[in-house]
Amino acid sequence: MNARPTAVHDPGLDQGARAGFNQRLRDRLHIAALRARPRTLPNRILLILALVGPGLLVMLGDNDAGGVLTYAQTGAAYGLGLFLPLMLVLGVVAYIVQEMTIRLGAVTRRGHAELIWKRYGPFWGIFSLVDLVLANVLTLVTEFIGIRIGGLAFGIPYAVSVPLTLAFVVGTLVFLRYWAWERVALAIAALNLVFVPLVWMAKPDWSEVAHAFTGGGWILPGGALSATFLVLLSANIGTSIAPWQLFFQQSCVVDKGLLPKDIAASRRDLMLGVAGMVLVAMAIIILGATVLARLPDAKDMTAGAVLNALRTDLGDTAMKLFALGLVEAGLIASVVITASTAWAIGEAFDLPRSLNASPAQAWRFYAPAVMGTVVAAGVVLFPNLPLGFLNISVQVIATVFMPAAMLFLLMLLNDRDLMGDHVNTMRRNAVAIVIMAALILCNVLYGLVTVFPHLFGN
Q: How far apart are CA 191 and CA 186, in angstroms?
């Protein structure tokens, strides 16, 4: 580079917007410098590490506390046959959906909420924003439930663990700039893999696991649809793809300052995240089928019942590993979901919307997300909550909201004025439409079960 870009002093930008833009510029210069170095293995590794982040975070954050309990309940209730290979399918679906947000963010350099608001007007902007914020607050409730129960396994009262987690989530959001926030979040997300050693401790029949991928048990449980099966199917879909993921990853791409030239690297980042998500989900389903299926209330188990069963069958160490994973899952999801709320509201109302802005510069950007997280944490401090019901219900809500979110995404990806050469191909559109149709079918079946509880049996 012959000339070094200087900081932006555009008087049309307020102080918070300038701070975010200038920090993004410095981050881009850092990546450009890494690209300019000789193509040695250490330099390639440094460049890869600089570009990873959004894909890993969105997918490992998707293995949240509610998702962990959903996978465990699924394995306990229905074993390996149908849901274990289904996770591979859901991993592919998650990649297809999230790859579209990568292109959209890198090409337009605008967040998801901002694009909906500006392309389709305030009515649809408010519609999508209300859906997102409501779903995010409800999901945060399940994250704090996981932290509450996981903390109790270590003897930490929830009156301590929940407020401490709240302080950490708010502190990382408000006081860390994007690069530091991302690195802290990635360090937490890496602990998601704590569930994998638990499978080896459970000593499953690996021939049965292999048989599940070759057609063994690929039939509906009980030979027919049931209300419980449809609820768990919706919950598993909702914990694999959810509206907050679209908003989060696109805003992440924008705040990180990624460009079209970074799309290929971002796809690899996403692929790594999907692999991690699927690996952990399958590990928990296997654990549920191996250890938890013997419980008399396998279809309605709570997190407490899961921990007690693990302690009885595998010992105190296994129980505490699962509890640690539950806390980690709730923590990383709380970090990323809170950020997705902040970005979406900031984009919708044209506020300074970068984690690089200080609280004094962009307090209106941070405040709504902080308030939503405080509300979710406050709910969990109430005793005698119906924890199991809340967990499954929130995952199902994500499935209900997802078709509308995907429709906006698909329309934006087909807008040639926005996307240029990166517009969706016919094949991508066809696959996305099939995914939307499957989600709508799942929602219709779930709606029928809700209105007519005995339509498909018990």
A: 9
H helices of 349-386, in order, are 363-380
The SS3 call for residue 457 is: strand
Give the SS3 label for residue 455: strand
Residue at 415: amino acid letter:
D
Q: Which segment of 220-234, 321-335, 339-353 scores lowest on mean pLDDT? A: 220-234
Q: For the domain bounded by 15-451, which CATH number is listed?
A: 1.20.1740.10
* Sole residue written with tokens 């998707």: 62
Q: Which of 198, 43, 17 is nearest to 114 (CA)?
A: 17
What's the pLDDT band for 18 if we cut at 50, 70, 90? low
DSSP string, 132-191: HHHHHHHHHHHHHHHHHHHHHHTT--HHHHHHHHHHHHHHHHHHS-HHHHHHHHHHHHHG
pLDDT category, 214, cuts 50, 70, 90?
A: confident
Which residues fall within 8 angstroms of residue 35, CB to CB, at 6 or more apart? 47
- How far apart are alpha carbons 80 and 213 in whole angstroms? 9
Whether pTM > 0.90 for this model: the answer is no
